[in-house]
Design a protein that fits this description.
With 463 residues, the chain is mainly alpha-helical. The protein is 45% helix and 7% strand. The chain has a two-stranded antiparallel sheet. The chain has a two-stranded parallel sheet with strand order 3-4.
Length: 463
């Protein structure tokens, strides 16, 4: 029907055909169109509007052709001979004239509307860019102010008496006129951290981390650096106290910074993992004795060479954490998530690890004297050359535990089925009263021992 109205040799047919083809091409090439729009500074978020503008540019020659045709037809009808006298033909005549005038007005207004839409789009994009820039500047200012607060100090005036005893010829102390021992008062000033202001800085950094994905890792790095720098010399400072240094209370701002690290949500931990390389909290070498980590989500945090004596890590997630060479004497790890964590050469003497999940953890060369591992999940853990002495493993899951170089006599409350579910090699010592499992009789690697143990069990089951 359309081909009968508009012949092939008519210019309008080819204009409509090219318009349809252009729209189809723009739709098919949307990814390329998005990059082109970005090159011209146009927001790709409003792709439909920008695509309309781009299509208009492509079709502008055909719009001009249509505009000329409509203009000629309008003037042709207006300048034609006297309108027909019949009412039906007269109605058709004026209807066609009205339609042409309306079409001509629409063709004239269309470019203006598109120009207005383009201007509005650029203004919106500029306003959004300005808003983001202002927001980033505001966050940067807050970040800078918060970091400055972390270094706040205050001057403290102190006064102490120094007794000055005077003794008479009979060896008796001579009191002052009021009957008191004569003393000399010394006054001096000291500087110490202003904890109130530092708390404000810590909470400001936590808030920035919560509202800004872009600044989250920077905040975490700042908090970790603050902990490392302010918790590295407490042992020396406490060395003169009667209480052992490893059990002295942590400074309040250090405790608060640790709690902030543990409060970040799962989405923030996933954001850290998406970085290349993945970001990990870095608390290596920190003195964090008796610090309360309980209930937090720390993920694969780095604790190498840290002092965690007496620290509270119960009900805390440390999946993939590295505790290598850390001092964790008598720390609390009840119900802690320690899946695939590393404890190479870690001191865990007296650690309370009841119900801890150590699935796949590496405890190579770890010291576990008097450690409490009751009901712990040790499935797949490596206790290669671990040092045991009264290590309680009652009801612990020891399936596929690697025991090379381990003297199993150091286990307390060990059951035969626990020993049978683990595997070792010739260097593994079995205590008296227990049957040695089908382990290889020579020293071998992890996989070699595992394969030989599995083969021996299969052969026994077939015999």
């Amino acid at each position: 029907m359309i081909l009968q109205i508009i012949p092939f040799d008519h210019g309008l047919f080819w204009a409509i055909l090219i318009a349809v083809v252009s729209i189809a091409l723009v739709w098919a090439l949307r990814p390329i169109l998005k990059r082109i729009l970005q090159q011209f500074g146009m927001s790709s978020d409003r792709l439909y509007l920008n695509a309309l503008i781009l299509i208009t540019v492509i079709l502008s020659p055909f719009w001009l052709l249509l505009f000329v045709y409509t203009l000629q037809a309008t003037f042709g009808i207006i300048l034609s001979s006297t309108p027909p006298q019949e009412s039906s033909l007269l109605l058709t005549h004026y209807g066609a004239l009205s339609a042409l005038i309306i079409t001509l007005g629409a063709l004239t207004a269309a470019p203006l509307l598109l120009v207005k839409s383009f201007i509005n789009e650029r203004q919106t994009a500029n306003a959004e860019t300005h808003r983001i820039s202002e927001e980033y500047r505001h966050i940067t200012d807050r970040f800078t102010n918060a970091v400055n607060q972390l270094g706040a100090q205050r001057t403290v005036h102190k006064r102490a008496s120094q007794p000055q005893y005077q003794i008479d010829q009979d060896g008796n102390y001579i009191p002052d006129p009021e009957g008191k021992t004569v003393a000399k008062w010394d006054s001096w000033t000291e500087t110490e951290p202003n904890l109130e202001i530092r708390f404000g800085g810590l909470f400001a950094l936590e808030r920035i981390s919560q509202i800004s994905d872009r600044e989250h890792v920077a905040v975490m790095e700042t908090l970790c650096a603050y902990i490392r720098e302010n918790a590295k010399s407490r042992l020396e400072a406490d060395a003169t106290h009667d209480m052992p240094a490893q059990y002295s209370s942590p400074r309040a701002d250090i405790q608060m910074a640790v709690k902030i690290l543990g409060r970040r949500g799962q989405e923030r931990i996933e954001l850290e993992a998406q970085r290349e390389p993945a970001y990990r909290l870095d608390l290596r070498g920190s003195d964090l004795a008796v610090v309360d980590f309980s209930g937090g989500k720390f993920g694969p945090v780095l604790f190498e060479r840290a002092n965690l004596q007496g620290a509270w890590l119960d009900n805390t997630s440390f999946k993939g954490a590295d505790f290598s060479s850390a001092n964790m004497t008598e720390c609390w790890l009840e119900e802690a998530v320690l899946i695939k964590a590393r404890f190479d050469e870690t001191i865990l003497n007296g650690a309370w690890m009841v119900g801890a999940n150590l699935n796949g953890a590496a405890l190579v060369g770890a010291e576990l004297h008097k450690a409490k591992m009751r009901n712990a999940n040790l499935q797949g853990a490596e206790l290669d050359s671990a040092k045991l002495d009264d290590t309680d493993v009652s009801d612990a899951n020891m399936q596929l535990v690697w025991l090379r170089g381990v003297d199993c006599a150091g286990f307390n409350n060990l059951e035969q089925d626990q020993l049978d579910s683990a595997f070792g090699d010739a260097t593994t010592k079995v205590p008296k009263g227990y049957t040695r499992p089908l382990w290889p009789r020579q020293q071998s690697t992890y996989m070699e021992s595992f394969e030989m143990w599995v083969d021996a069990k299969k052969q026994k089951s077939l015999s």
